[in-house]
Amino acid sequence: MPGGAVTELETAVEYLEGYAEVLAGVCATGRRLTREEREALRSRGERAAEAGIGLRALVRAHLAEAQRVHSELQVATADHLLSAVEQAVDAFAEGHERAQHLLMRQEEAARREFIDDLLYGRSDLGRIAERAERFGLLLSHAHAVAVAQGPEPYSDGYEVTRSVESSLVARFGNRRILLTTKDGRLICVAPADETEVLAHFAKQAHAATDGGQVAVGRAHPGTSGVVHSYEEALNALDLASRMDLDDPVLYAADLLVYPVLTRDRQAMADLVQTVLGPLQQARGGAKPLLDTLTAYFDTGCVTAQAARRLSLSVRAMTYRLDRIHRLTGSDPGDPVQRYTLQTAVVGARLLGWPDQVL
């Protein structure tokens, strides 16, 4: 028997105080355990669980002690021993399980509090870094955060969450990865030099969430870097929603141009109103023509491909582009004028125009 197992079994014996006397008393009279005896056993089970002793070692200790008691009993009184052991072990195990459940709830509460503090930076950064080691993170290193969202919210314990977690553990084992949920989304925090972890997370989360979308923030050092990367991932998901970006995986580093364009919101609003405002004179409003420009630019200015995307004939697509040229004074086919139009279209999508009043 390994030395560690012997030590645990020997330690378990410490929680059997009075057990032999209870067995002997029950066997002598044939009675059931009293309420006080069962409660005492439950209390010892709780203390054993709090001490970190496994239930298997404790049950083995109970059975070994029962065997010793059996050898000392008269045949006539030994008949009740099995029933007494069953009652005693049941009460002891109940206390052990009760303490385990409490410890698990406390651990989960501590983990949830840590995650909230980590992702929102609401606590002392040094203290967060100390607590992070308990959950497998070394925040002195740079980390990146990936966030996945699907058609429905997810939480810890959900099948989707368990599926992604199992896949990560099977592939990477313990590589200082934190997988959790927040506000119905799946979140993975990984060291910056473990890029394959986030790539695998993105692949698994996309599949598990039935085609959900994953955003990956840039890697940043320190505790505040995790917050920064998390916010970048959230902003990327928000941007994808506003811009109708349907890529399964979005990288914040590839989307940096969009925050730049909206940094001066008033200037962008002026550009949209000036360049695209005349489209509101068209029959049906600006929206159909704005969709036309969006499809045209998204397909690399290929008229036939844009027409297919909008379920239009090439002739109808060409008519719309000509109509845009006449209303705005800018030709979508001209390289110089196209840049202004495309920037204005991006701005309109970011600002929600024409549905939102600028």
TrEMBL record:
Residues 289-345 form the PucR C-terminal helix-turn-helix domain. Pfam families: GGDEF_2, HTH_30. Residues 121-239 form the CdaR GGDEF-like domain. Signal peptide: none annotated. Belongs to the CdaR family. This is Helix-turn-helix domain-containing protein. It comes from Streptomyces zaomyceticus. The lineage of its organism: Bacteria, Bacillati, Actinomycetota, Actinomycetes, Kitasatosporales.
